[in-house]
Every structure is written in C-alpha cells, then in structure tokens.
C-alpha cells in the first residue's frame, strides 16, 4: 500500500496534464477568428487529387469542383492515378481532369505519389498561385475554392488547412460519432492551437499551399501519417499552417466495423510511431528556443486519442475512488467535466446536426469497439502501404 498510493497519486497528476491542455485549447477555440483582412484576389488554383483505384467516386469529386462558386478559368484539376488497376485514369480524364499515371510498386503510398507529381510535373503548375490537395472520395463545399483564394489573398499565408468533415453523418451510429469526433479534432483542435501558437496541424485532406513553397519542398514525408509528418517539417522551418473553418471538404465515412477498423488502426498505429520519433525533439526545441508553438505541437502529439484518454481516465478514476480521498477525487471529477466541455464545445462550434447529438449516447459502444484495435496495434506488423478503404456507397457483402 505504501507504494500503490503514491503511484496512483502520480498517475492522477500525469493525467491531469492532458485534461488541463484540453480545457485551455477548448477555451482558445472559442476565441479563434479566421484571417480575412484583405480582399479576395481570385487566385489561380490547382486542385491536386491523389487516387488509387477510385473509379467509383472520382467523377463525383471532380464534379463537385466544377460546381464550385469560383471562376472555372481560374481552376485546374490534376489527378494522380497511382498504381491503379481499374479505370480511374480514364473516367477522370472524361470528367475534365488532367491525369498523370504513376506505376511504382516498390514505392507505394499517398506521400510517394504526391512527391513524384510535385517534383516531376512542375510544368503543369505553371501560372498557378495555390495548390490544394484533396482526397479522391471527397465533395468540396461550393465555397471551398473561394475560401482558399481568400485565405491566400491575406499577407504572409503559405500553408492552409480547411475543415475536413463528414458527408454522411446520418448513415449510422459510426458516421454520426465520427462527425462528432471531426467537429472536435478537425475544428476545435485546429482553431485552439492556432489561437495559442499561430500554427496548426495538417489533416491530409483539404490542405492548400503556396505553389512556390510546395514545389520547393516537394512531399518528402512518406509514412502512413504523412500529413502530420509534413506539419512538423513546416514547423521546423518556421512556416505556419493557417486554419480556415469555412474552406470545407467532406468525406464519406464507412459504417461497417471491418472497414472502419482497418482505416483507424492503420492511422493510429502510424500516429503512435510518430509520437516516439518527434516528442522529445519538440520538447528540446521548446526549451532551447522558448517558442510556444513547439510546446503546443508537443501537446497535440502527446495527448492520447480521445478514446484511449477516456479509458485511461476510467481506470485511474476507479483506482482513485478506491485509494485516494479529498482534493484528489475533486481533480478526477474535473477530468470528466473537462471532457464533457471539450466534446460539447466541438459540436456547438461546428453547429452539429440533431443526429450527431443523438448518437453521442453511443459513444461507449465506440470506445468498446476501439479497445481491440489498440491491442491489435501492439502486436501487429506495421505497414506504410497505401491501402484503399472501401467506401460505404460501394456494393459490399452483408456482415454476419
């Protein structure tokens, strides 16, 4: 008992750090306002779409770009048909995109495809001001390109992240919960860090860059979380990623457990690997420079995913109720109040629909679903290969 009580006390102290950070970042998100000081100059925009076997959805993505409230003569659409063995290239060309095909089975991946295009096809980008990167299964908001142009019309902006949302939140409890999660992670956790430090993380979809910047850097990040990796590269080079919550793209979320598990486990295993690589360097940079942006980036990386954090809070709460008393129990109660404030604030700030609010009661099921994912990630062989996630709109066999 002499060892157990101090250990539980230390655990409560350590878990109070992410709780405090989430409280601070939530308050900061309420104070965030997008930058719009200068008039929109209507820039020349290239829309870059990396695609791997996306024949079923690529036309819809291209059509959503054509339907944008933005002058068509100021937009070019490029599709990278990467290692495709279907008709992605053909249907994209027929839909009006410029298509380049890449075949390299030894260097497979979204990051590799982007890097290849940016380094080998610079002539296609001639005359552009901005290059925005979207996934092949998204639908861009009618005002997406106009908002991207507005952001880059502001002085000093070289990199931008828009809001990446869910297109089918009412398709089931999983898409509904993911909509709620995106409202938190893809908005609140963008707006708050930017308000605190002047930069935020890239999310891989709905990103945009000054053409000269992205041509100079290429896309040297090739892991399964290449967007986060590239965020740190920009951070190290003191290039801020700005956030525009009105530049909106929406992705279809899967409802089947099998497809969702595959998608999330790949991403989260890559994220944990990046934590081991970048956490200490970011802390060293903070202590050596005193710049808050490095501390915020460390916190964004180090704070566990919400589901894992809830599980840690639950275990620690049970131990605290058993072994501790007084102010320690008040601290534990504060964790849960902060989590509620954090999740609800994301929905308020993004004006969540009624269905999303309703399915939040299914959150315990989502947490139970993810427990085996964490166990599997601990023992499964890691892979950086670009594995396409099956879309909900595609035909599939019924699950048992």
From TrEMBL:
Q: Which SUPFAM superfamilies match?
A: Nucleotide-diphospho-sugar transferases
How does this protein lie in the membrane? Answer: Multi-pass membrane protein
Signal peptide bounds? none
Q: Name one GO cellular component term.
A: membrane
Q: Does the keyword Transferase apply?
A: yes
Where is the chain membrane-spanning?
12-32, 294-321, 327-345, 357-379
For molecular function, the Gene Ontology terms on record are: glycosyltransferase activity; hydrolase activity
| Pfam families registered for this protein in UniProt | Glyco_tranf_2_3
This protein's source sits in the domain of life called Bacteria
**Subcellular location(s) per record:** Membrane
Q: Which UniProt keywords apply?
A: Glycosyltransferase, Hydrolase, Membrane, Transferase, Transmembrane, Transmembrane helix
Would the keyword Iron be found if you checked this record's keyword annotation? no
Q: What is this protein called?
A: Glycosyl hydrolase
This chain's source organism reads: Chlorobaculum limnaeum
């Amino acid at each position: 008992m002499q060892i157990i009580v101090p250990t539980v006390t230390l655990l409560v102290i350590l878990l109070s750090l992410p709780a405090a950070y989430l409280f601070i970042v939530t308050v900061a998100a309420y104070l965030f306002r997008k930058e719009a000081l200068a008039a929109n100059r209507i820039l020349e925009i290239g829309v870059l779409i990396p695609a791997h076997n996306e024949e079923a959805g690529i036309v819809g993505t291209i059509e959503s770009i054509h339907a944008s409230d933005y002058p068509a003569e100021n937009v070019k659409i490029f599709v990278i048909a990467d290692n495709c063995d279907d008709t992605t290239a053909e249907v994209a060309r027929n839909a009006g995109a410029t298509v380049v095909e890449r075949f390299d089975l030894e260097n497979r991946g979204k990051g590799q495809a982007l890097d290849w295009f940016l380094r080998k096809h610079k002539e296609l980008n001639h005359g552009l001001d901005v290059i925005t990167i979207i996934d092949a299964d998204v639908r861009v908001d009618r005002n997406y390109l106009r908002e991207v142009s507005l952001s880059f019309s502001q002085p000093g902006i070289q990199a931008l992240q828009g809001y990446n949302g869910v297109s089918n939140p009412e398709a089931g409890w999983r898409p509904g919960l993911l909509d709620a999660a995106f409202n938190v992670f893809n908005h609140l956790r963008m707006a708050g860090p930017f308000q605190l430090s002047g930069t935020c993380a890239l999310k891989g979809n709905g990103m945009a860059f000054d053409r000269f910047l992205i041509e100079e850097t290429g896309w040297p990040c090739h892991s399964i979380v290449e967007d986060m990796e590239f965020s740190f590269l920009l951070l190290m080079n003191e290039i801020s990623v700005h956030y525009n919550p009105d530049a909106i793209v929406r992705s279809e979320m899967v409802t089947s457990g099998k497809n969702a598990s595959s998608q999330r486990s790949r991403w989260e295993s890559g994220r944990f690997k990046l934590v081991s690589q970048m956490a200490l360097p970011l802390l060293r940079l903070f202590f050596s420079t005193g710049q808050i942006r490095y501390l915020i980036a460390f916190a964004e990386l180090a704070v566990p995913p919400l589901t894992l954090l809830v599980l840690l809070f639950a275990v620690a709460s049970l131990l605290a109720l058993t072994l501790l008393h007084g102010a320690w129990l008040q601290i534990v109660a504060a964790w849960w109040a902060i989590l509620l404030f954090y999740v609800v604030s994301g929905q308020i700030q993004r004006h969540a629909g009624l269905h999303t609010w309703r399915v939040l009661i299914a959150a315990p099921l989502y947490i139970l679903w993810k427990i085996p994912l964490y166990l599997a990630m601990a023992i499964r062989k890691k892979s950086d290969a670009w594995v396409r996630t099956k879309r909900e709109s595609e035909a599939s066999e019924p699950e048992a």
